[in-house]
From TrEMBL:
Residues 25-34 have a biased composition (Pro residues). Residues 1-40 are annotated as: Disordered. SUPFAM superfamilies: Tryptophan synthase beta subunit-like PLP-dependent enzymes (SSF53686). This is Uncharacterized protein. GO terms for biological process: cysteine biosynthetic process from serine. InterPro entries: P-phosphate_BS, TrpB-like_PALP_sf.
Length: 171
């Protein structure tokens, strides 16, 4: 006997991947004295139905997917035929060169106008109203013991946690 409660489980049946989903043990029934016998029978019958419903649904889903999986495996094993598929080519990319750099530079649009000047790091949350805040993380820097300026950008954050922060500050 094993800790699963049956020696047959220890002999290899539990190794099957669907064993636990298809053959779940029913929960123990409540003690007979706890409820009338009719209620106990109805509860047991309901538990049996519930335990059997899930594996049937899974079997249905697996049966529906089997033709798709079979077709995918068939396509995977099909060798490449240039006469049917055409020539497949890819550029010989060896790294960033002068031509790529010129094309990249030509496509740049330049800096955006307006907005928050990120060189100014605020000391108070009130200074952050209306902007995506950047916060100096001095306590975390000290805790980690790093020798740099540690900043955090708080996306989707306003000082008071509301879209009404701007009007609230002016009031």
């Amino acid at each position: 006997s094993s800790h699963f409660g049956s020696s047959r489980l220890a002999e290899g049946r539990a190794a099957h991947p669907r064993f636990w989903t298809a053959h779940r043990p029913l929960p123990p029934p409540p003690p007979p004295a706890a409820m009338p016998s009719r209620s106990a029978m109805a509860l047991r019958q309901s538990l049996r139905r519930a335990a059997g419903a899930l594996p049937q649904q899974r079997r249905f889903a697996a049966a529906a997917a089997d033709p798709v999986i079979a077709r995918a495996r068939e396509m995977q094993k099909t060798p490449y035929d240039p006469a049917k598929e055409g020539k497949v080519s890819a550029p010989n990319y060896v790294g960033w060169d002068k031509e790529i750099d010129e094309g990249f530079t030509k496509l740049q649009t330049g800096p955006k106008k307006g907005g928050r000047p990120y060189a100014e790091i605020c000391e108070s949350a009130l200074d952050l109203i209306g902007f995506t805040p950047m916060v100096r993380m001095s306590r975390l820097r000290a805790h980690l013991g790093v020798e740099c300026e540690l900043l955090g950008k708080c996306e989707f954050f306003n000082a008071g946690g509301s879209v009404k922060d701007r009007i609230g500050k002016r009031m």
